[in-house]
Amino acid sequence: xxxxxxxxxxxxxxxxxxxxxxxxxxxxxxxxxxxxxxxxxxxxxxxxxxxxxxxxxxxxxxxxxxxxxxxxxxxxxxxxxxxxxxxxxxxxxxxxxxxxxxxxxxxxxxxxxxxxxxxxxxxxxxxxxxxxxxxxxxxxxxxxxxxxxxxxxxxxxxxxxxxxxxxxxxxxxxxxxxxxxxxxxxxxxxxxxxxxxxxxxxxxxxxxxxxxxxxxxxxxxxxxxxxxxxxxxxxxxxxxxxxxxxxxxxxxxxxxxxxxxxxxxxxxxxxxxxxxxxxxxxxxx
Length: 285
Hints:
By secondary structure, this protein is α/β, with parallel strands linked by helices. The protein has eight helices and ten strands.
């Protein structure tokens, strides 16, 4: 059984045995290719979450009415991506073994791979829904295959064609865009096609891993991220997309790439908190 955390995300203080969802942080940014700082994302989200109400007027639901447990941040070795991923995988395995849904807070986007490996082991027919500004489909970045620029490619290596669904993408190598058009369900620039994808996946009943890279948001709304890309979506659009994905059988999720010190106003952290609150409320039953 996991021990309670000292400072929890807003209202996520249910006893572990009763919790439907277990939140945990992966403060890792060792492979960040531009501006580091996402290691401070999980703790910033927790600390600033108390500026939010537990009630969501968007969903007419209140976090206080549900059982969510925050197990805190993992202690991760910054010099070894593989060892960090193994620690994330182990924590995810524990949560899944106990019949609960894991929600991971990054950290850079590479942290997704550790959780995804654990979830795939339990759900071999797993699909991945990916919101991001970047394709993350490089074979390697400067010779390193375990990089936040390669995380979706590593997931692809595990599940192959037709099971990765990408939205909001607006940056990447020409080769990555070509690969995506051939090998993934690829919807660049926004959420066009999401309803059709969700309807199909819902009908099939397949398990879904849902990963949200917050740089899918336009940097005018969310400047606090390591690799900002103009032309992104805004919070209302992201919220509606999250609510739509919730109609599928989501079995695990993550939110990543907040670098809080890059937005001294705190607005990016506040937005990240709101995304986490709304995501939690879509996942609880």
